Amino acid sequence: MTISTQIRDTFEKGVGIFRLKPVFVPRRFAQAGKRLRLHPDDYYALGTNRGSIKERWLSSVIPAMNGPLAPEDEGLSYVAVNDDATEKFLLKDAVAELGAELIGETLQAKYGNWPMYSKFFDFGTPLFHHLHLSDEDAARVGRMGKPEAYYFPPQLNNHLGQFPVTYFGYDPDATYEDVRDRLLQFESGDSRITELSRAYRIELGTGWYTPPGVVHAPGSVLTYEPQWNSDVNSVHENVVAGEVYPYEFLTENCPEDKQRDIDYIMSLLDWEKNTDPHYKKKYFRPPIVCAHTDEKHTEKWITYGNEYFGAKELTVEPGQTVTIRDEAAYGTVLIQGHGTFGVHEAEAAVMLRFGQMSGDEFFVGEQAARKGIVVTNRSKWEPMVFLKHFGPNHPDMP
To answer: Per-residue DSSP letters for 161-191?
Structure first.
């Protein structure tokens, strides 16, 4: 059987829905939060030289930029052909084969690809204060810019780690020269650059949108992160929770001739957004309940108000069956409960071994989404709770 035939047969048997295999990604810095529902013995499944596993990538068609030891497919989502995923193919290949049949004409015409992915970010310590580049700045190093969003699901946060507070931007009273001077201290000692920032205590069940060019230091809460298909950083903080970061973290996405140019590095900042006195008013994202919510189910927009991506939280009450319609393709992950999702059995992960198949992650083609997915909650007691991530083309996104 050719890969083309396999992709089309799997798509037909799933009635427009692919079941995806879990994708766990290590990071060589910081500490694992250990809330990814991975077996405790498996956080170093790829070896200590790769670091512990701290992320799970969802609906991804791009590899993780994760150093020379990373395999070429690290971060890429696979579609399971059979129950244990011993037969599989890349979601990236399915998008290339099916095109508009899978992602819809709008995304196919504008991007020729599925343009976003999501992840579970799971650090037990705070992450460094850093920014993601704009399209213009990222293009200078052959990359794309990266906006991202956050949502803090209660179901995955049985503990809040060591520092459940996130810094965003710089205080309106901080000056350009203040920040520039701290960055010049990157190699001479602890710059304590977050002294110039603003911290917000994390509220479970809410989220934020972070534009490119805005520095942020995520707190130690497991976070659901819809984001653009990119991975470009400039790290402003050199010492975090006792861990020292090298100068290359500040400049790894700068052209080679600009890596000692402090004014170029500063130009990556969107100064107006970073020092906006009404930052929370513009970028905090409390959930918005959808109008079609009823006694059987609740849908909320949890990521919205941007031109790149959106996300919803769907809750189906115990013992209920509902038909869920959306006007765009999406990826989804089940974080609580069990039942059926279309023709597929579905159950939230409890404790996975590394490399094991699960029943919690799916990708829904646009036509299937528009027709409607029948979801049945088979539990008498617990709700089914899904997180759903969309590209920029959902017409109902606030």
So the answer is: -S--EEEES--TT--HHHHHHHHTTTTTS--
What is the per-residue DSSP string for 202-270? --TT-EEEE-TT--EE--SS-EEEEEES---EEE--SEETTEE--THHHHTTS-GGGTT-HHHHHHTS-
Q: Is residue 94 scored above 90 in pLDDT?
A: yes
Residue 209 CB-half CA count within 13 A = 21
pTM for the complete prediction?
0.97
Q: What is the mean pLDDT of residues 359-388?
A: 98
DSSP-assigned letter for residue 27:
-
The answer to whether 148 and 228 are in contact (CB under 8 A) is: yes
> Structural domains in the chain?
118-289 (2.60.120.10), 290-390 (2.60.120.10)
CB crowding 108-129: b at 16 or more within 10 Å, else e: beebebbbbbbbbbbbbbbbbb
292-317 residue pLDDT tens? 999 999 999 999 999 999 999 999 99
pLDDT of 231 above 90: no
pLDDT number for residue 65:
86
Which residues sit opposite 235 in a β-bridge? 130
